[in-house]
Structure formats: C-alpha cells, structure tokens
Amino acid sequence: MSASAPQTAAGWHARAAAFAPAGDLFIDGDFCPAASGDRFETVNPATGAVLAAVARGGPADVDRAVASGRAAFRGGAWSRCQPRQRMAVLGRFADLIERHAAEFALTDTLDMGKPVTEMMVVDVPLAVLCLRFTAECIDKMQGSVGMTGQDVLSYVLRQPLGVVGCIVPWNYPLLMTIWKIAPALAAGNSVVLKPAEQSPLSALLLARLFMEAGGPAGVLNVVTGFGPEAGMPLALHGDVEKIAFTGSAEIGKLMLVYAGQSNMKKVATECGGKSPHVVMADAPDLEKAAEWAAMGIFGNQGEVCCAGSRLIVERAVADEFTALLKEKALRNHVPGDPLDPATTMGPLVDRGQQKRVLSYIAAGLEGGAACALGGGVPAGLEAGAYVSPTIFTGVDNSMRIAREEIFGPVVSVLTVDSLDEAIAVANDSPFGLAAGIWTGDLGKAHRFARDVEAGMVYVNSYMNGDMQMPFGGWKESGNGRDKCMDSLLSYTQTKGVWVTFE
Ligand code: NAI
Ligand code: MG
Q1: pTM, whole model, 2 decimals?
Q2: Which CATH class is domain 9-271+479-495?
Q3: Secondary structure (DSSP) of 439-484
Q4: 320 in catalytic set
C-alpha cells in the first residue's frame, strides 16, 4: 500500500467519515449540475448508507458533452498534438492516479463494496499500468507507404476517430474505465464517459486529475446517470464515432442496434460470460488448481466478466477437488467489512444484484443441483448486500445456473469423463470470454487452447496475463479487445492518400 493509505479498519473508517466526493457532471473542463437539475443517490452496499447525490444526466447533457468533445477534437490541441505531448500528459495522469491511490480505493470500495485491499493491490496498480503501457504505445503506431509506379506516392494515415463514448460497468469502476479511456485518449480522440449508475464517483475524480495532468478542456467529459437516460442518447448520437461498452450481453446487443439506428458508429463490446474452467485428473497440483478456481469465481465477489463460473472436472478427481475447493473458499474468501484491510470479500454492488444472485441460487436448487457450500446471506451481515460463496455440485450443463451469467459468488461443478467431453461442454454456451485448463499433459493443454471457443485461455492458472494479452471475447461475450496494442489501434481509422506528381 502507498505511504498515505491507512493500514487499519479504523483508519479507513475515519477517512470514510470525512468522504465528500464530487457529484456533478464534468463537461468542457468544469463540474456542472445536470440541465434538469435532477440527482440520484449512490449508496454504500455494505451498510445501505447514502454516499452522495449525483447529477442525473440526460440527453441535453450528452449533447453538450459531445459538442464539447467535438470542438476540442476539431481544435486539435489534443487530436493533432505531438505524440510526445500526449504521452507526457497521460504519464502525469498515471502518476496522479498512483498518488491518489488511497482516495480511489476508498471511493470504489464505498461505492460498490469491493475490499479496500483489492483496490490497493489490484485495481489501482493495474489502472496505472494500463495508462503507462498505452501512453508508451502512442509513438509506436505507424501508417504505411504503398508500392506504386513512378510519379505516384500512396500512403496510409492512421488517425483518431473523433468523439468516443465509453459506457462502463460497476464491477471495476476505475479499472474498466481506464481500459476504455486510456486507448481512446492515447489515440487522440475526445471522450464522453458514462459510468455505471451504481458506481459513478471515481470517474469524476479521474476527470479532475486528467485536467490537473494537463489534459485540455473538452477532451474528457463525464456524464453520470442511468443507462436509458444518459447511455442511450450517447450511443444513438450522430456525432459519436465509436461506443466502447462493457456490461451485460443484453445491453451490448442494444449498442449494435443503436449504431444501426444512428450513424453506423463503430461498436466494441465486452459482455461477460459463463467461462469454463477445466480440471483434468492429471492436473499437476490439485490443491493449487482449487485455490485458483476459488479465486476465479469468488474473487471480487464473483462480479467478474471472465469468472470461471463453470468448473468442469474429470470424474476421477471430482470429489477430492470439490472438497479442496470448499476448503479454499472458506479460508480465502470470507465476507466482511470491505474497509477492513484483512477482508477478502465484500458485499455485492447493491440489493438488486443480491436479489438476482439469490434467485439464481433458488433456481439451482429447483433445477436439482446440490448446494455443497453457502447458498444464502452470511450470518451477521444482513445490513449489507452480501451473499456467501456458494458451490453447486451435480450440475448439468442445460441447467439455468450453467447457462446464464449470474455475476456473483456462485459456481457450478460439472463432471466429465474425457478431454473431448470437457471441450464439448465448455463450448456448449452462448458465451466465449475466458477458459482455463489444469493438466500436466502438454498435448491436452494445446488441444484445449486450440479447440475451446474463447477469447482468452489460461493453462495451469486462471485470469492471469499482462498488458500485451488481448482481453475480450468470442460469441456473445462481445467483439472488442481491451488492453493490448490492438486496442489502441481500434480507436484509430486509416485514410488512404494517393498523390500524383505529374
Ligand atoms: P448493464 O449492462 O445494464 O449496465 C452496463 C452499463 O450500461 C451501465 O453503465 C449502464 O448504465 C449502461 N446501460 C444500461 N442500459 C443502457 C442502455 N439502454 N443504453 C445505454 N447504456 C445502457 O448491466 P447491469 O444492469 O448493471 O447488470 C446486470 C447484469 O449484467 C449483471 O448481473 C451481470 O450479469 C451483467 N454485467 C456484466 C458485466 C461485465 O463486465 N461483463 C458488468 C456489469 C454487468
Ligand atoms: Mg441495467
């Protein structure tokens, strides 16, 4: 943890008591209320306490934010500046986020419930890393020159798109936002960001720090509010060239509809999944596999798009593995006060999500699965939106709990008799985000990696990787790729230029 971060629960609670976040829109370099004057409350899911009354943006605010972004883009102070200049601003932006690590940790923990230690050791450092990686890529992008006959020069320019709308979810409020805005800004675009209504606060802190880092006014705008009121007009806007979206598949599909109904803008979606995590009997270390499997579904309360929510286990080791999984869940994922640095699991984002997850648990029992662990609200934590780590065994891949994204700490254990069957079950899903396999057999590992229908595959670990590894899915998990160099390129477009000399 950084020097300024509290080291105790009492220290974090003292900070929380003094918490006074910005709650206005950020347009054209300034905070301002919504045109309607309306506000909505954002709530701490660990306690139910109201944190702030946040501006409830609507179509008029989106129009103003897009116009500001467009004017900044045409003005060229960001879109046409020297690459080094953008690199310097984004570098300072990363430094500022790092310096405000404890403030970001407090903000997202209070707003959506994840453990403060997760923020300090995962979300904030990974956000800073993403910004630095992306900034470093800026002057590595190139256009090209074509082969032509004499007296002709043909070249391809790579240029920013214009105004990019970023619509992000609440499970990693800071990190998912950075994954979108870092490449959009790095490529020279202006951004209008619509954070999730459940977790709008850290986006406003980001906007302030971007200006402090030297970002020009209008280049990064934030319109807080609800999906249909603020997100939809952004996605339908005729002067927005791209929507970068992370969230549910249902809303991701709508983004494509909105693009078709408006200006055929580019759409990049990242839409969750039902990711298969396979454990073969020849796994080199079953205990390690169980530890990663528990982390892969119970980490971040299971509110993770690439969560390994279907554990597909070879029958010979299924009982032993399930026993180990229970042990790891009970030891490493214990619900508690998210402001206590020792806590490993917080509440879900809100009461609505808690209700949704509990209804899936009921559906699992009705469908005939056996609940081997958890299955309800942890005792003593009824004041918050908590759900205990829950393990279902005896799951068939046709059950609802094996097909639909639950987005909570609920895992289905399915048994299979061979690698072929494991691959067939893995691919029997509308989704295709991540997949994992534990095996000591290189041939099996590579065959799985070749044949599984997923955008990311992990062999003998899970949810691993670095900034170069593309993050995104196949099938209904979406069409976008975050993090890697390709992501940066996806916020640019090419322009062919044909010059004749005579
Ligand atoms: P959602 O997909 O409704 O929300 C994601 C973002 O889209 C938010 O910023 C929201 O305001 C915005 N949005 C919603 N409706 C919109 C519309 N019509 N036009 C434009 N923007 C719109 O997700 P929600 O309701 O928060 O969660 C429901 C389920 O979705 C979760 O239980 C989970 O299964 C899944 N989900 C998956 C995520 C992922 O990372 N893959 C993240 C969040 C949710
Ligand atoms: Mg929604």
Answers
A1: 0.98
A2: alpha beta
A3: -S-HHHHHHHHHHS--SEEEESSSS---TTS-B--EETT-S--BSS
A4: no
